[in-house]
Amino acid sequence: MKKVMMMLALMAIPFAMQAQTKFHDAEVNEATGPVKSIKQAGMMGRGEQVVNFTQEGKMQAEGLSGLVYDDNGYLQKAVREVETPQGNMKITTTYKWENGKVKSQSMDFGQGSMTQVFNYNDKGVIASATMDMMGQEMTTPFTDYQFDDHGNWISRKTEMMGRQIEQKRTIEYYE
């Protein structure tokens, strides 16, 4: 009887561990902590983007599917369908991690691809991103960060195509 109980206990361990998986999807979105949602104005005036998170940290957003994780809950791949003036486009993003931060992300969007490599400052926030879009390379600096009480950025400035842009976002947290 003891052996049977021990076998049942050993068989239950993988399921218990699986239920305790902590997803690191907030980190993909440059945030940490018990993030409930991130709302951010879309680039170039394209509406508002909203990303929601479960209490376990798993990302949920409109058009998001095909999420693939490693054994530690770090997102490796995601598929997102977005609406464009030319119709719906499917974007497959692959992530590379280093020391708990996204080091790079590669996006395949059918007719082309783009890779971004992130450079972090000593405070652990992105200082710049180098983008390679179908052979054209461009570096985008990020400055003038403002942070909320949880240490996540809520405002930052960048320059794109000669224009100064202020990115703002609102973050809600689980209590």
Termini separation: 44 Å
Number of strands: 12
Shape: globular
The major β-sheet equals: 12 strands, antiparallel
In the sheet with the most strands, the strands line up as: 3-2-1-12-11-10-9-8-7-6-5-4
* Estimated structural class: mainly beta
Percent helix: 10-25%
| Helix/strand order | HHEEEEEEEEEEEE
Strand content: over 45%
| Cα-atom radius of gyration | 19 Å
The overall pLDDT average reads 84
- Continuous helix count: 2
Q: Unreliable runs, pLDDT <50, ≥5 residues?
A: 1-20
Protein model, in words:
With 175 residues, this protein is mainly beta. It contains 2 helices and 12 strands; from the N terminus they run ααββββββββββββ. It has helices spanning 2-19, 25-28, and strands at 35-41, 48-53, 59-60, 64-69, 75-84, 87-98, 101-108, 113-120, 126-133, 136-147, 153-160, 163-173. Strand 2 and strand 3 form a beta hairpin. It is globular. Residues 1-20 have low confidence and may be disordered.
